[in-house]
Amino acid sequence: MIEVVIDDRCGGCGDCVDVCPSDVLARGPGGKAVIARQADCQTCYLCELYCPEDALFVWPQTDSVADVTAQQALATGDVGGFRRDSGWDEHAATHTNQHWRMGAIFERARLMAIDAAKTARTEDGRTK
């Protein structure tokens, strides 16, 4: 779950806000990211992946808030680790980026969600 936006690192680009599939993040003062709906976080790490400033910290725990502070996040040494280990941006030369493979998985999930919505409407007595 998203735990913290490290304010002094956030440059306000908004990439994390744009990529979040659950609209967990929003633009706050100065365009900087703020956590708006933490409970909606899917722990997909897309915000961390797209943050060029390594200003976000996602904790792998998905069912409750861990209350990690910026100082605690930085102390883990894991801030920016997902981008690095994924071979994103400046890490492309040293780590292999395989995220291109996720496109088919996301498309399959999208189609399953559409089918589920159609089924729910049919079961409610509404037409497709």
TrEMBL record:
<dbReference type="InterPro" id="IPR017896">
    <property type="entry name" value="4Fe4S_Fe-S-bd"/>
</dbReference>
<dbReference type="GO" id="GO:0051539">
    <property type="term" value="F:4 iron, 4 sulfur cluster binding"/>
</dbReference>
<keyword id="KW-0411">Iron-sulfur</keyword>
<protein>
    <submittedName>
        <fullName>Ferredoxin</fullName>
    </submittedName>
</protein>
<feature type="domain" description="4Fe-4S ferredoxin-type">
    <location>
        <begin position="1"/>
        <end position="30"/>
    </location>
</feature>
<dbReference type="InterPro" id="IPR050572">
    <property type="entry name" value="Fe-S_Ferredoxin"/>
</dbReference>
<feature type="domain" description="4Fe-4S ferredoxin-type">
    <location>
        <begin position="31"/>
        <end position="61"/>
    </location>
</feature>
<dbReference type="GO" id="GO:0046872">
    <property type="term" value="F:metal ion binding"/>
</dbReference>
<keyword id="KW-0004">4Fe-4S</keyword>
<keyword id="KW-0479">Metal-binding</keyword>
<keyword id="KW-0408">Iron</keyword>
<dbReference type="InterPro" id="IPR017900">
    <property type="entry name" value="4Fe4S_Fe_S_CS"/>
</dbReference>
<dbReference type="Pfam" id="PF13187">
    <property type="entry name" value="Fer4_9"/>
</dbReference>
